[in-house]
Write a structure and sequence with these properties.
Layout (H helix, E strand, L loop, with lengths): L10 E2 L9 E2 L7 E2 L2 E2 H5 L1 E4 H6 L20 H19 L3 E5 H4 L6 H22 L2 E6 L18 H20 L4 E4 L5 E2 L7 H22 L4 E4 L9 E2 L4 H10 L6 E6 H6 L4 H10 L3 E5 L18 H13 L8 E3 L10 H27 L2 H9 L6 H7 L5 H10 L9 H15 L6
Parallel strand pairs: 1-2, 5-6, 5-14, 6-7, 7-8, 8-10, 10-12, 12-13, 13-14
Antiparallel strand pairs: 3-4, 9-11
Helix pairs in contact: 3-5, 5-6, 6-7, 10-11, 11-12, 12-16
């Protein structure tokens, strides 16, 4: 059965195309900085938003019309597998990602959970081999079921901790079976609502114990994918332990995990933490923990995680600048943790969403690469900090001075501060972004 009728394979037609079912900027084989766009970005379909999201919200019933929803239970799960690989084929994608309960019903107990997953995983593997598609990452949903109301690895209840461990154990086996590039931990409820009844030290210690056990089991079964933590500051819990990249990195260092984990950064989570997307990417890059990216954006007028498809070229350019400076994402990619808006309820809207997201990042990649080639920001930054290249600044950098010497120097010298020229720099950035949309270097 075809689930996306009327949609042929999406092709690159260039910026002059008026075909809504064509790429305007994403040419998978276009080479930039020695790599193809396909290799730089490694786009991935998020199974949950694409095939299970129904359009319901706290104020309204489901709106999505999905042909696979004519089925239920395992039949629906099997239909979603077919829809996923048809979608991947038509978009020309190479990767997808999922939570355990996205691909199969959880069942009434762990045995049913395992049996249901085995059925679907066998089907996924068959399609992956036939279409040469890879699993970017998988993860366990440990936030939806009521048992996780107080967390999973940070729950006050040891039985919940054990259940969470069983779920992750199964998912690591699946990651090994499907040769996943990464395994993600998103602690949706790994946090607390109130300190009045919370032992934060015990909860953080237990979270670290959980991660170490996961590492041990991965080593035992021979899974060599990258472990990732996805920071998020709030929603659903008020105080989440993985608030942002810096908080997550401090946790990893404190519990001897920094050599084993990287971060999966989501754009909308960055803004919820009060940061920009590029801030989180920069921090992760400079500390060697940039692993993968969930590509989306939020609505700045709303204070929650709206998970919109990325269309902001400015943000995409600055994000791709960080990714290019990182040399790419190694085992990671750009996963579209994004959902079409509730009134965009037809299956074809899913296609439009992915097209705009892929085009946006392709355009951003072009602009960022040209900026790097021309050393636009590099030269600006080097000049701004040039006082540290000689004299007293060099002595500071090399650790060859002291407060006494600095005081004596300061008494003899007059400070001269130069303008940061921030507005001029933004104008230059605009030129590169606009220029990237005019022609493509193929």
């Amino acid at each position: 059965m075809a689930y996306f009728t009327g949609v042929e394979k999406i092709k690159y037609e260039g910026s002059d195309s008026r075909n809504p079912l064509a790429f305007k900027y994403y040419n998978a084989d276009e080479t930039i900085g020695g790599k193809s766009l396909r290799d730089w970005m490694k786009f991935s379909v998020a199974y949950w938003h694409t095939f299970t999201m129904d359009g319901s919200d706290p104020f309204g019933l489901p709106t999505m019309e999905r042909p696979w929803d004519q089925y239920a239970g395992m039949e629906q799960a099997r239909a979603r597998v077919e829809a996923n690989f048809e979608f991947i084929d038509k978009l020309g994608l190479d990767y997808f990602a999922f939570h355990d309960v996205d691909i199969a019903p959880e069942g009434n107990n762990l045995q049913e959970y395992s049996d249901n997953l085995d059925d679907i995983v066998a089907r996924l593997k068959k399609h992956m081999q036939a279409q040469n598609v890879s699993l970017l990452w998988n993860t366990s949903n440990m936030f939806h079921h009521p048992r996780f109301m107080f967390g999973a690895a940070t729950s006050n209840n040891a039985d919940v901790f054990a259940h969470a461990a069983a779920k992750v154990k199964k998912q690591l086996v699946i990651a090994k079976e499907l040769n996943a590039s990464n395994y993600v931990f998103w602690g949706g409820r790994e946090g607390y609502e109130s300190l009045l009844y919370t032992d934060t030290k015990l909860e953080l210690d237990n979270l670290a114990r959980f991660y170490h056990m996961a590492l041990d089991y991965a080593k035992e079964i021979g899974f060599d994918g990258q472990f990732l933590i996805e920071p998020k500051p709030k929603e659903p819990t008020k105080h989440q332990y993985d608030f942002d990249t810096a908080t997550t990195y401090a946790f990893l260092q404190n519990y001897d995990l920094a050599d084993h984990f990287k971060v999966n950064i989501e754009a909308n989570h960055a803004t919820l933490a009060g940061h920009t997307f590029e801030h989180e990417l920069r921090y992760a890059r400079e500390h060697g923990i940039l692993g993968s990216v969930d590509a989306n954006q939020g609505d700045m007028l709303l204070g929650w995680d709206t998970d919109e498809f990325p269309s902001d070229i400015y943000n995409a350019t600055l994000a791709m600048y960080e990714i290019l400076k990182n040399g790419g994402l190694e085992k990671g990619g750009l996963n579209f943790d994004a959902k079409v808006r509730r009134p965009s309820f037809e299956p074809i809207d899913l296609v439009h969403g992915h097209i705009v997201g892929m085009d946006t990042f392709a355009l951003g990649c072009r602009a960022a690469q040209r900026m790097i080639e021309d050393r636009v920001l590099e030269d600006i930054v080097e000049k701004r900090y040039e006082s540290y290249n000689s004299g007293i600044g060099q002595a500071i950098i090399e650790g060859k001075t002291s407060f006494r010497e600095l005081e004596a120097y300061a008494k003899e010298n007059t400070i001269k501060v130069e303008s940061g020229r921030q507005e001029m720099i933004k104008g230059i950035l605009n030129q590169y972004i606009l220029g990237a949309g005019v022609t493509a270097r193929v």
